[in-house]
Amino acid sequence: MSKGVTKQWPAVWPCSARPPHIPCVTQRAAIARAAIMNGPAITILRGLPVPQLAGLLMLMLGVALTEGVGILALVPMLALLGQAASALPSWAEPFARLVDLPMLLVFFVALVAGRAALQFALSLAQQRAQLKLIDRWRHEVFAALVRANWRTLSAMRRSDHVSLIVTSIDRLGYGFSNLLQIIAMAVTLGAIWIVALWLAPALAAVAVVGGLIVIAGFIPLKRKAHRLGVALGQRYAAVQGSLDESLRAMRLIKSHGREAAAIATMQGGMTELRSAQIAFHKAASRSRALLHVGAAILLATIIALASARDVPTSVLLPLIVLFGRSVPLLDALQQGTQQWAHSAPALAEAQAVLDTARAGAEPPVGDALPVVPRQSIALDNATIDHDGRHRPAVDAITLTLPVATTTALVGPSGAGKSTLADLFGGLLEPDGGDLVVDGKRLRGEGTVHWRRSVAYVHQEPVLFPASIRENMLWAEPDASDPQIETALRDAAAGFVFDLPSGVDTFVGDAGCQLSGGERQRIALARALLRDPALLILDEATSALDAASEAAIADAIGRMKGVRTVLIVAHRGMLTDLADRIVHMRDGRIEHVENRRKVVA
Ligand SMILES: Nc1ncnc2c1ncn2[C@@H]1O[C@H](COP(=O)(O)OP(=O)(O)OP(=O)(O)O)[C@@H](O)[C@H]1O
Ligand SMILES: [Mg+2]
């Protein structure tokens, strides 16, 4: 891309120095905090289809019910074993008369087997729901980013998105599975407490009140876990960001001898990430220890009360089993709540990016055919005014490119050449004025549609780690072999046919197995394969040697009178080809130098 964050701004952008219109990590965390208060649990559950949610709830209820009945079956079982049979509760007497011990044991085993089957189905259903949720969020965030306009994208940091899509959304899925666990746990706990209250109301009431106090104690822990979750999200983004930047800047790092600094930056980020993870683990372990101590105190109280009230063993034992089951459930409930609070900021983070990207969404144009201009491509009074800048990058410029002519834009750095080229290419929509093709003013959908007719070649061509053929087909998937060959020859890239594997030669990571000039000619061939109505070359030869520049200039020269070409360049072979040279400074046209007669 000709401009944007990566070009004019430092790679790693601290929040304090970032321009106000760019959401930095801390700002995003603030958005995250705001969103968490609005019930992310409800938001996330609403995303599930109703039948799926109902199915999950039914399975949870089934698991809870079988658990409660299983514990209840202990009462007649103990009575039949002769344990305090005289003190059997009245509801259990008919059962004890009707069934014998083997029957009860078979029933018990069948119940546990049924519960195991339900739990199996539940865990599978939960896993499916979790993976589906992750897939949906990944898809929505990525699709929203791809559909956002260039201005929105250039104000965002790429590595933040990688961190969001890869890490945060995974955390979100994990949080969601915790949320489902919380619901399942709460349902089971409810069932257990109902059974306990029925068995021995007074004693169970003590246990239930104790349990409710523990649950109330979760609230501050949840807030803390949420704060730690926000911090963790930031650290992940920072680590991923510095990793991404360093790997991209490896050549620079080596040539500047900055290896140690790069390793130290990465190490620093990892240390901070680890400390955020340990802080969360510490908080979770501390609360678990507190829960266990509290549970022991409560159990001791219940047993003391039971012995004072002469509660029969056949009731006391199941009650202790119920209590014993409640503690790990409460424990899991607490851990689940903390995990959820810890992961939930990822939802707000994803939502914030989604909202920003959707706010800058471009209208879809479906598979409309490219526009073929017959007369001219023009800008009428076009202005681009970036937030936080003293003057417009392009200031009310009116310029016409007659079809089949070559125009060069020259001027000092920052004059607005790339911005003007992006306006002609439909990548940017003017803040004021219009892009006019054959007299038709283009806006919104029209501008996006126009882009189908444009091809760019930049100073640093983007080649994918694939074969030359695949790189070409990326731009035009239906292109035939002869079309690929013609485009390569037109772009002065005939050298491809002398390579041992020809068009099937692997170009290496980012094209590193080709020279700069070869890469650039393949990028030009790929652009030509689209048969663009407007070809834009933004400093396409500034990094090349004279021979490579001459090869490209030769290719462009052969397009004269056939294709509309816009060249952004400092003086050189390419500008010499132009029918007209437009001199720019401070976002305006200083003067136009006509080389040949141009019919406007
Ligand atoms: N996304 C952006 N946000 C804010 N300002 C921007 C943005 N992109 C470009 N600018 C500013 O707009 C002005 C014109 O930039 P542009 O990239 O068009 O210059 P240029 O003439 O192509 O320069 P160069 O020869 O260095 O490539 C510059 O002052 C630049 O800092
Ligand atoms: Mg530029």
TrEMBL record:
Pfam family, one: ABC_membrane
Segments passing through the bilayer: 56-81, 101-122, 179-196, 202-221, 289-308
Nucleotide-binding is among the record's keywords: yes
Keywords, alphabetical: ATP-binding, Membrane, Nucleotide-binding, Transmembrane, Transmembrane helix
Cell compartment(s), UniProt: Cell membrane
Topology term for the membrane: Multi-pass membrane protein
SMART domains found in the cross-reference section: AAA
InterPro entries: AAA+_ATPase, ABC1_TM_dom, ABC1_TM_sf, ABC_transporter-like_ATP-bd, ABC_transporter-like_CS, P-loop_NTPase, Type_1_exporter
GO molecular function annotation: ABC-type transporter activity; ATP binding; ATP hydrolysis activity; ATPase-coupled lipid transmembrane transporter activity
Domain ABC transmembrane type-1 residues, every copy: 54-309
Listed Gene3D superfamilies: ABC transporter type 1, transmembrane domain, P-loop containing nucleotide triphosphate hydrolases
PROSITE patterns linked: ABC_TM1F, ABC_TRANSPORTER_1, ABC_TRANSPORTER_2
One GO cellular component term: plasma membrane
Span of domain ABC transporter: 377-600
Principal place of residence: membrane
Name of the featured protein: ABC transporter ATP-binding protein
